[in-house]
Amino acid sequence: MFEKVLIANRGEIALRIHRACKEMGIATVAVHSTADADAMHVRLADESVCIGPPMVRESYLNIPAILSAASVTGADAIHPGIGFMAENARFAELVQEHGFSFIGPEPEHIRIMGDKVAARRAVIEHDLPIVPGSDGAVPDMEAGRALARKIGYPVLVKAAAGGGGKGMKVAGDDKGFEEAFSLAKAEAGAAFGNDEVYIEKYLDRPRHIEIQLLGDHHGHCVHFGERDCSIQRRHQKVVEEAPSPALNASARDRIGRLAARVASDIGYRGLGTMEFLYQDGEFYFIEMNTRLQVEHTISEMITGVDLVREQIRVASGAPMGYAQDDITFSGHAIECRINAENPATFTPRPGKVENYHAPGGLGVRVDSAIYDGYMIPPYYDSLIAKLVVSGKNRNEALLRLKRALGEFVIGGVDTLLPLHEKIVAQPEFIDGNYDIHWLEKMLEVEVLGKVKDQE
């Protein structure tokens, strides 16, 4: 087992990793920018190293600085967390080349799954169903338009190296395709340095279902059930729950075992998540995230397994020690992402946190690194807390979530707490009757209603 782990990340996920390490008797090293000098994980870590100024390219994306920090502190492993370097294959290679263990999958799997075209090709070979679309990046607009007509509109133009909703545009006809193609390529080039795009059929009412996987160095791979991440805005997840209210036991078991079998076949190790669109009883693979996920918490709540602990264990070479049938599922869990954003415009609102009070009680968990008086910096992702609740069933979890949202106080900055209170009050959400377009439609109706009131 590792003796000292450097955590190459920040915020609540850095604190989450620190806690898992401490419970395993592992010393921690926090790296941070000058803007994060007073961050909670920096305060609690055994050692800390400042790796640069606030801008991410000079700090959290500064590979030489991270490796130097690991060297001078004597760390024997590096955990990339979520975002930043977590899905950077070259970083994983350099970590290993410099004699450290990378707490994540092999670089080759990061590289393959990081390219959505290559990922589609890889899973097709293992009989995973995919959304109908191009076999690879389309060479030009004319070829793309011809394929869109063959598939049938509407279609989705997507960045081959994309993520987080960037470089993703919908086209409903030939005229719309030209604009969507141009915008997607421009956005992809600006965001990822790669303007290649591919095309797939646009599903009108799918659920976003993802399967949590874990593979070890000994050829074993298991799944921890599914998460429903369909409550989204601009392809960004807002609320997640497990299990999905849209799946029955047969569908759940089928897709879980299929995903685990494919991951095992390709020799995957570490934590990973296969993401699918689900409509009319059919699953369609869309991508694989080769890292820890923000929403891992709800899988932990329904299985009782500390996924971060297991991620660290398998990275050290330890076997999982259990089979698929040893993993049991109990109850229901829901996570709300609390961002420091205006709840109406979703504009980031950094600032000083005042009057902070987290909810508590049975079945309530808050993963956050903020505290009363904490200054939220303007340089990073706006996620500041995750409210997670669990119950014996979905109805109990919903009632607990409503209560916990009413108790949560984050003063001094705008947050998405009011939005979450609206979401949990909607009949469609209460009934579990929603898809990936539901939240945006709800917000559009709300805006139209305000306009009519003003007329």
Brief summary of the model shown:
With 455 residues, this protein is an alpha+beta fold. It has helices spanning 11-23, 40-44, 63-73, 89-97, 107-114, 116-124, 141-151, 174-192, 249-265, 296-303, 307-315, 394-407, 417-425, 427-431, 438-454; strands at residues 4-7, 27-33, 47-52, 77-79, 101-102, 155-159, 168-171, 197-201, 207-215, 221-233, 236-242, 270-279, 282-289, 332-339, 351-352, 354-357, 364-368, 375-376, 383-391, 409-411.
Set out the fold topology.
Blueprint: E1 4-7, H1 11-23, E2 27-33, H2 40-44, E3 47-52, H3 63-73, E4 77-79, H4 89-97, E5 101-102, H5 107-114, H6 116-124, H7 141-151, E6 155-159, E7 168-171, H8 174-192, E8 197-201, E9 207-215, E10 221-233, E11 236-242, H9 249-265, E12 270-279, E13 282-289, H10 296-303, H11 307-315, E14 332-339, E15 351-352, E16 354-357, E17 364-368, E18 375-376, E19 383-391, H12 394-407, E20 409-411, H13 417-425, H14 427-431, H15 438-454
Parallel strand pairs: 1-2, 1-4, 2-3, 4-5
Antiparallel strand pairs: 6-7, 6-8, 9-10, 9-12, 10-11, 11-14, 12-13, 14-19, 15-18, 16-20, 17-19
What does this molecule look like?
This protein has three domains: 4-103, Rossmann fold (3-Layer(aba) Sandwich); 132-201, ATP-grasp fold, A domain (Dna Ligase, domain 1, 2-Layer Sandwich), CATH 3.30.1490; 207-447, ATP-grasp fold, B domain (D-amino Acid Aminotransferase, Chain A, domain 1), CATH 3.30.470. The chain has helices at residues 11-23, 40-44, 63-73, 89-97, 107-114, 116-124, 141-151, 174-192, 249-265, 296-303, 307-315, 394-407, 417-425, 427-431, 438-454; strands at residues 4-7, 27-33, 47-52, 77-79, 101-102, 155-159, 168-171, 197-201, 207-215, 221-233, 236-242, 270-279, 282-289, 332-339, 351-352, 354-357, 364-368, 375-376, 383-391, 409-411. The chain is globular and about 60 Å long. Helix 4 (89-97) runs antiparallel to helix 5 (107-114) and helix 12 (394-407) packs antiparallel against helix 13. The chain is built from 15 helices and 20 strands. With 455 residues, it is an alpha+beta fold. The model has no long low-confidence stretch (mean pLDDT 95). It has an eight-stranded antiparallel sheet with strand order 13-12-9-10-11-14-19-17, with helices on both faces. A five-stranded parallel sheet has the order 3-2-1-4-5. A three-stranded antiparallel sheet has the order 7-6-8, with helices on one face. 49% of the residues are buried.
